[in-house]
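Support request, please re-run this one:
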Amino acid sequence: MRLSTVQRWTCWWLLFPVVALAHTASDSYLTLDLAGNPPQLRWDIALPDLQQALGLDRDADRRITWGELRAAHPEIAGYAMQRLRLRAAGRDCAIAALPQRVADHNDGTYAVLPLDVDCDGTTPTTLSYKLLFDIDPTHRGVLRVITNTGEQVHLLSPEQPTAMLSRETSGGRLLLVREHLENGIGHILGGADHLLFLLTLILPVVLEHREGRWQAATSARQVAGKLLGVVTAFTLAHSLTLSLAVLGMVETAARWVEPAIALTICLAALNNVRPFLPGSAASIAFVLGLVHGFGFAAALSGLGTTRETTLLVLGAFNVGVELGQLLVVGLVVPIAYVYRHSSVFRVVGVQFGSVAIAAVAIFWFVERSLTLGLLVR
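Re-run finished. Output below.
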């Protein structure tokens, strides 16, 4: 069975995400209060991120104790403040660390750095951020700015590491929507686990399981109907749980959400090898997709904004996720449809590819189940 050059590259492109390493969203949260004088700044940094950067687990027992965290406070504060810059009236503001605390977010435990800001009585005009960008280019800083007239939310990234600050919030809504629209797109395109799950859902839509094996779907209308059902079901499912989690109606913990996401990938992939899950493809996408909404919610877990701003951020982020999802569908499904009659696509692209995806998902499940233990107080 010879593969043409186009077929080889097509199969490799479809299977490429299998070799990617997935990780949970890496975010830190800054709250800058400009309503008072002097300004107040709080910085929440996830313990796994600090472990990655500084190695806080000094006894290598896969747990970070309060004693280890307290002993590392000068190192944590120094590391963080070297990567943060506030400017006012053309000069750098002085930043000093206050006693460290901890806080629980939906995606785990965070070290909390209260910071004393001295800008000589003037208002900060810019904040520059570069935490973890040299280690993890997908890391993001989420900056909430509180002013006398409302609040702003800025997303800080390697491409946009500086936020322009103002005591006025006019014009900030459009920026807020744009940033979190991009955040949603980047979250699904940059998350190997969500991408693999989406691939396991959409690759089989161009096929039918008849007489004990996968065969090409007979018509474009049939493929379109099945695709619409799967994509709609997945969208409804993750939008529902994302909204419930972000609005605080359901509480989740990363210690079970992340392994559960890996498990959904494994189940969906094995179902592509030999269908065993009950129900239609759309119902499977809906039930398993509910878990992924909780995973998406981790990206918005530490906003702490007003309900109005939270709803705006949630809407923009969710639309961004859908746009990213549609981009993947638009790239993958036409290629899959063209090659649906090819045994190479059915065997290598779908069945062998799904076995590889299931193997990666099992690895993720074990890795996430045994992940670094969180704080012992």
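Residues 307-338 form the longest helix (32 residues). The two ends are 61 Å apart (CA to CA).
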